[in-house]
Amino acid sequence: MIATIIIGMDNAFEILGSYVITFAVIGGFTWRVLRQGRRLADQVDDDQKYWT
Amino acid sequence: MNRWSIARLVAAKDLRIERRSKVLTNQVIPFAGVTMVIFAFALDAKSARTDDGFVPLLELVAPGLVWLAALFSLLLLVQRAFAIEADDGALDALRVAGVDPVAIFWGKSAALAVQLAVLDMVLLGAAVLLYGADVPAGGLVLLVVTLVVATCGLACVGTLYGGLTAGFSGRETLLPLLVLPVVAPVLIGATRAVESALGTGGVALSEGWPWIGLLTVFAIAFGVGGALAFGPLIDEAT
Amino acid sequence: MTTTTPAPATTPTRTRGTGTTATRLLGIATVVMLGWLVAFGLGFSPADRDQDEAVRIMYVHVPTVWVAYVALGVTALCSALYLFTKKHSLGFDRFAGASAEIAVVFMALTLVSGMLWGKITWGVYWAWDARLTSFALLFISTIGYLAVRSLGGSHQQRAKRSAIVGLLVVLEIPLVHWSVRLWNSLHQEPSVLDTDGDVSIEGLMLFSLFVGVIAFTLLYVWLLLHRTRSMAMADLLDDVGLDQALADRRAEGASS
At what angle do helices C90-121 and C203-255 cross, to 10 degrees? Predict the structure, then answer.
């Protein structure tokens, strides 16, 4: 149902583009934050992590 | 020694160094001059239609170009003002000697303001000579007030961020990134004020004075804020 | 059963990642809300009377602006807390830095989605509107703040320097906004500005906007927690590296 609405939409390029860019950038940033966290967490002992 | 006499000494020292090294007259002013010439290449000698009929484009945008060239030159002057301190650790020496940072800030700002004021006058002269801008007698007071207030604001911002980036590698690139967004209000305000002082494109003289208000608030905000922030910023002992 | 895998007491455990049960729950809630945002934004919510389909961009645009401002506010608040509390806790500094990083990402997204909206509504990507222009300058200033954070020096130096710059950015906001607004009032036809003024908001549209704001706020909190934790570890490893280097140097000095 959603697909038919989207395809028939005016200015679909701009509207879908804004959603795609927003979610892609957020996804990329999130992935980077998590990966960096993983990398650092492997080098630090648990008793030095204040959240554990 | 009180704060004022220390500030005066710091300013006198900076100006004496400038008088001996002649960086302003031999390098920065020529740079500003060539900027004014290449602006003309970029904009061409076209005319634009205004309410008063056709006006040469360069004359119309002359006030903005003067301040734009002043901003770029400000960056050079600030680099220079702190290069002379950082090279032999003079800033650290002043701090270790317990010299009041507020006095250092005001002294360096004042020296920078003097150099910048000289530069602004040269740039205005260039606009008159090259772009055909003319200065009506009625606008002279507004012109001088704009020049003084805008220059004070620019000098305070320049000194503050110059002190922050002094002594770091990569300061040449960081300084414009920090300074240019902050001085945008000065560029806007001073350009409009000079436009009405010169009567560019038929702008009335009375329209210039509200911008003086903006420029004054800006100069006071960064004069006071800068004096408060400068000490902790250059204090790298902790 | 417990005897089959005896973990040696001497090696401390190292959990992977920066997550905890709480952040995992928060993350799941965020993903669910973001799914709802897409469903409502692109599907259930109707086209607007004035803006037509372009209103759908608002469901991602408004929440990103909201997060950008909240993140900047948190940066300013934590900078002030760092400077004006006796302890000068680096925790505040790391919150400020993490929040500013998130702010830069969301400000960039705000500008992009705003431009796409402007292309539909105004016919151009960029209008020299007071809000747009001062937002763009603020974006550059926030990038400058992050550049100052990476200048180097000890952690306390970094914290003090960036806290001051963070507060200067806040000082700059009203000045920039005032000047751009004054400039704009002389040079801009107000008709362009009216288009985003009074939008009649219906129930389902308001709800979609609400879903977006909740989703992005949860996302912000989740990102902030993770990023702050990695920054804490990075600082810790820096210190360890420094201690190690000092110890090596001492050993070198003793042996020669």
Answer: 140
Partners for C (CB, 8 Å, 3+ pairs)? A, B
* Helix boundaries (H) for chain B: 3-21, 23, 29-43, 57-86, 90-96, 101-131, 140-165, 171-198, 209-234
Q: DSSP class of residue B137?
A: G
Burial of B22 (0-12, 13-18, 19+ CB in 10 A): exposed
**Cβ of residue C205 closer than 8 Å to a chain A Cβ:** no
Confidence of residue C151 (pLDDT cuts 50, 70, 90): confident
Residue C151's nearest CA partner among B115, B171, B61 is B171
Q: In C, which residues are within 8 Å of A11 by CB distance?
A: 52-54, 120
Q: For chain A, say whether C54 makes contact (Cβ under 8 Å).
A: yes
B174–C172 CB contact, under 8 Å: no
pLDDT at A8: 57
Contact C160/B at CB under 8 A: yes
- Whether residue B7 has pLDDT greater than 90: no
Check CB contact of C43 with chain A, cutoff 8 Å. Answer: yes
Per the rule left: phi > 0, alpha: psi between -120 and 50, beta: everything else, B50 is: beta
Output C93 or C154, whichever has higher pLDDT: C93
CA–CA gap between residue C222 and residue A30 (Å, rounded): 10
C222 close to C30: Cβ distance less than 8 angstroms: yes
Q: Which of B168, B170, B232 sits opposite C160 (nearest CB)?
A: B232
**Is the pLDDT score of C2 beyond 50?**
no
Distance from CA of C187 to the nearest CA of B (A): 11
User: Do A18 and C236 lie within an 8 Å CB cutoff?
Assistant: no
Q: Do A34 and C226 touch (CB under 8 A)?
A: yes
CA B46 to chain centre: 29
Whether residue C195 is predicted with pLDDT greater than 50 in this model: the reply is no
Q: Which pLDDT does position C200 carry in this prediction?
A: 52
The model's pTM = 0.85
Ordered by start, the domain boundaries in chain C are 24-49+63-189+203-234
Q: Which pLDDT belongs to residue C1?
A: 40
**Rounded-to-10 torsion of CA B218, B223, B227, B230:** 60
Q: How far is A8 from chain C (nearest CA, A)?
A: 11
DSSP state of B45: T
Summarize pLDDT for C50-77 with one digit per residue, the tens.
Answer: 666 777 888 889 899 999 999 999 999 9
